[in-house]
Amino acid sequence: MTETDGPNDWPGSISALTLFTEDLAQTKRFYQEVFGLPVTYEDDNSAVFTFGNTLVNLLRTTAAHGLIEPAGVAGPATGARMQLTLPVDDVDAMCKVLADRGVTLLNGPVDRPWGIRTASFRDPGGHIWEIAR
Length: 133
What we know:
alpha/beta
């Protein structure tokens, strides 16, 4: 390995995602109710949930500045810059479950030209989630 090559096992899987939110309590409640997940860790500024092998850290935007400076923290009204996808066995059935949990879909269920069926929704922090089969 040379200095520019990097380690052979890099990059590996993504271990954690940090999502910024203005209202931590509301977003935490959404993750508990919609995804049915317990909180893995929390403090005054964050709540962490485990999705398989990936940690999703919900972080107050006021605490995010120190994490990413000198980059700025964008507000939820500036538009989506990413989408998180969860695989499901039946998109239509999961849409019904989400509706029962109070989720409003952004789109779908829809068959995409690349051969998958999807639906999308937004969490209270403005992050876009997609379910796909």
